[in-house]
Amino acid sequence: MTEPSAETLADRVRAGDLRLHELEEHADADVAATARRLLVAEVADADVDVLGEYAFDAADADANIENMIGAVQVPLGVAGPVAIDGDALSGERYLPLATTEGALVASLNRGCSVLNDAGGATARVTKRGMTRAPVFRVADVAGAATLVEWVEDNISELRAAAEATTSHGELLDVTPYVVGNNVYLRFRYDTKDAMGMNMATIATGEACELIEAETDASLVALSGNLCSDKKPAAVNAVEGRGRSVSADVTIPREIVEERLHTTPEAIAEINTRKNLVGSAKAGSLGFNAHVANAVAAMFLATGQDEAQVVEGANAITTAETTPEGDLYCSVSLASLEVGTVGGGTRLPTQAAGLEILGVRGGGDPAGGNADALAEAIAVGALAGELSLLAALGSRHLSSAHADLGR
User: Fold this and answer.
1) Among residues 225, 234, 246, which one has the least CA distance to residue 131?
2) Taking a C-beta distance cutoff of 8 angstroms, is the pair 152, 185 a contact?
3) Contact between 188 and 129 (Cβ < 8 Å)
4) pLDDT 10s digits, 202-216
5) Do 180 and 207 fall within a single domain?
6) Domain total for the chain?
7) Which residues are catalytic?
8) DSSP letter assigned to residue 98
9) Which is nearest to 221 in space by CA: 203, 241, 201, 237?
10) pLDDT for 343-366, tens place per residue?
11) Range of the domain at 350
12) Letter string b/e over residues 29-62, b meaning 16 or more CB atoms within 10 A of that residue's CB
């Protein structure tokens, strides 16, 4: 049987014979995407042909998108190479950055160059654990205490139930939070090289079935927002989520003065008054200059869940003058949710971004590649913080944007 054309499929949608999401049942994914472009262009009276220019088979994106009409291209640049001393990543690496913000890559590139002059940056993952926190309804606070006690006494049974759903994930712990007759159970998993949100959700669902079968508690929602996913939350700043990772460097005074055209004292004061005091006055959960820029650009370049930039930018930047008069600078990202397998990492261009870093696919040991990606992002964030703080200290921020025509 001859496969229908995009025009034929579009006609059938117009006639009400097919729905947009049913087109792949009658033609291959690229033809279905073309048919949807025809329909969208007609209804919106817009030229959308450029959206059909993409470098992968539409079928490869089946797990990532519904009702696909094409792809949006974001310019990709690199900063570096930058020398990284990490537990999981060591040596010089280019940092892939996908962004439409002019001057961003140039800024991070300058930061990377200064990090190299100082001997490179150090990075370490300090905590791991993807979370999912269901909320249960109980009769009263006495019932809440009973449920908490049951969970503490039956953690091995909960672990067995949760881990039966995955060949990779490990349940690390379950932390209870009680609010009246509401009990939130924050399940935390080691998801290895996967970002692991879906893994944690499925595993927690199985554990919840056991809780309902063995107790008087009733599951209200599999996610009770104490996870907390894709929202600014103090619990993630304190307890961490995904990977907690830090990067730091000590830069000799002469390099600060010659390369950044400012002083260690000026950068330390700006960081205190801007990133710490200013952020506190604003009620910010992030005490940094622009960590979100590095996180977002590297997320897009490597196929991460872009909505989780909200948590990834939950970071604190520190800067101080050492007793020797040099500059010590660090950035600590509390809840960086990254993976090198699954999700958007399977798409060809995003996989290429991971290849640039040398972290595509599963690591050896398991979890090593995701740790390495987290360390690279932390170093990128450090480079960006250093560059922006220096631009403010030298009064060059606006002139740099003007010179680059941004």
Assistant:
1) 225
2) no
3) yes
4) 999 999 999 999 999
5) yes
6) 3
7) 101, 305, 401
8) E
9) 201
10) 999 999 999 999 999 999 999 999
11) 76-127+243-403
12) bbbbbbbbbbbbbeeeeeeeeebeebeeebeebe
